[in-house]
Amino acid sequence: MRSAVVVFPGSNCDRDLAVAFREVGGREPDLVWHGETSLPDGLDVIGVPGGFSYGDYLRSGAMAARSPVMRAVADAAARGVTVIGVCNGFQILTEAGLLPGALMRNAGLAYICRPVKLAVGNSQSLFTSGYAAGEEITVPIAHHDGNYQADAETLDRLEGEGRVAFRYAERTNGSARDIAGIVNEGGNVLGMMPHPERALETAHGNRDGRRLFEGLFAAVAA
Amino acid sequence: MKARVFVTLKSGVLDPQGKAIHHALQGLGFDGVNDVRAGKLIELDLADGTSIPQIEEMCRKLLANTVIENFRIESMDGAGA
What we know:
- The structure holds two protein chains of two kinds.
- Chain A is an alpha/beta fold.
- Chain A contains six helices and eleven strands.
- Chain A has helices at 14-25, 62-65, 68-78, 88-95, 152-160, 208-221; strands spanning 3-7, 30-33, 45-48, 82-86, 102-104, 112-120, 136-143, 147-149, 164-168, 179-183, 189-192.
- In chain A, helix 1 crosses helix 6 (208-221).
- The longest helix of chain A has 14 residues, at 208-221.
- Chain B contains two helices and three strands.
- In chain B, strands 2-1-3 form a three-stranded antiparallel β-sheet, with helices on one face.
């Protein structure tokens, strides 16, 4: 299983995501600098990490989404390579047009950093096969701009096509229809605000996040 | 030449920042404020002859997220249209 994590200036969760890929995928991922115009050949999984790329100036994820490497990520996603964006990575994927909608300032205006309960939306997806559909899991969030918004037609389509991967099981940040994570039309790109890489080991509090990577790597290998 | 780009949230999109400013104004006793929307002002110093369509392209490609935001361009010394 060959994986890579993109490294943007300012991001602070790239290492954590790389650890998750290594621990679960069994092989050291490549770290790819944002200024690169191409990705290593033969990648199975690409990670777009969390953490304030470009200082979140202009808008969260806006400048990272226009960085050279993201054109290569978009091309890879179009070829069916699996892409997972966490937190700022989710913001980057929406800004890059790989996922619909936008992430806005939390409705309560506060930066929220705590474990939250999530309901798994669809166990058919590559990303949720490690869970039972509707299962409640606990994963930490840490964000200021996690309020997912899209027009009603887009939200209806996401729900109708089973593309809501995770929902907040408690009131959290004002997200439309409590959406915490969605997948693209092809089912190979996931964006989610909660941090599964921060629930990897028992010492993290629980291992609910690890199951995402286990399910994902098993599904991609199959 | 210089141009100003005003980026604002589309009407109907929840503006928590505007709401917070509104509450603060009410707290100061300004009762006549019906609503507050907060936005961004971006000033561009541009090569002479930069056209409005070029600035519009900058807005669509980077400066505004047109899923949730509108933009308005104000040319400060007669940008070529």
